[in-house]
Structure formats: structure tokens, C-alpha cells
């Protein structure tokens, strides 16, 4: 079963692993980012919107119809759960990172943006298959 997920969602899994690594390694302060208000939160939103869009893209690549429960679990619950887990790990398992509720909120907003884009992708996929 795990092999099937790896075969079906390789880019999504790779991006999730990249997000995990970036979330747990020490990260230097970037001077340019200090000029942009909430740059950290925008980065979180973009990362999770990107992950969500890729999950949807890989889903639509393999399926012509939507299984709402499967998509909800895989493209909404899983990325938000990953985000929450990483925020907890940052707070309690690292000495160089801190978990933040606003990061979790930004990540969740990113996932929801990905949901909207994923549904739009689905409309195109379904209209092309008719």
C-alpha cells in the first residue's frame, strides 16, 4: 500500500519531505525578509499552497472523478496535520526553532488556497475527459 502511494504521489511526498527538513533545520535570519511584513507567514502559506496544489495535480492525473472523502483526507487533513506536527516538533524537539500558532494558521490558509486551485483543476480535467 505504501508503495502505491509513493508511485501515485511521488512529487507530493518529495515536497512534504522538503518541508519537513526545512521546518526542522536551523535557519539563518535573512535581512531581505525583514523588509517584508509577515514574510515568514507568506512563506508558510506559499509552501503549503504549493504542496496542496501538487497533491491535487497528482490526484487528478490518476483519477477522473473525485472521491470527496479521499481528497479531503489527503489534500486537506494530511497537510494540516503535517503542519501541526511540525509546529509541535519545532517547539518541543528542537532548540533552534519555535512552534507558532500563526504559522499553523498560515499553513492552513495555504492548504485552503490549494483546495480552491485543486477544484478548479478538477473542473478542467473533467471537462476535457467528456
Largest sheet composition: none
Oligomer: single chain
- Strand fraction band? under 5%
Rounded Rg: 16 Å
Work out the number of β strands.
0
Q: What is the mean pLDDT?
A: 89
Count of structural domains = 1
* Helix percent band: over 70%
**Alpha carbon gap, first and last residue:** 31 Å
> What is the SS-derived class?
mainly alpha
Low-confidence stretches: none
Q: Helical segment tally?
A: 5
Descriptive labels:
about 130 residues; mainly alpha
How would you portray this structure in words?
There is one protein chain. By secondary structure, the chain is mainly alpha-helical. The protein has one domain. It contains five helices and no strands. It has helices at residues 2-8, 10-24, 39-62, 68-93, 101-128. Helix 2 (10-24) runs parallel beside helix 4 (68-93) and helix 4 (68-93) runs antiparallel to helix 5 (101-128). The radius of gyration is 16 Å and the shape is globular. The model has no long low-confidence stretch (mean pLDDT 89).
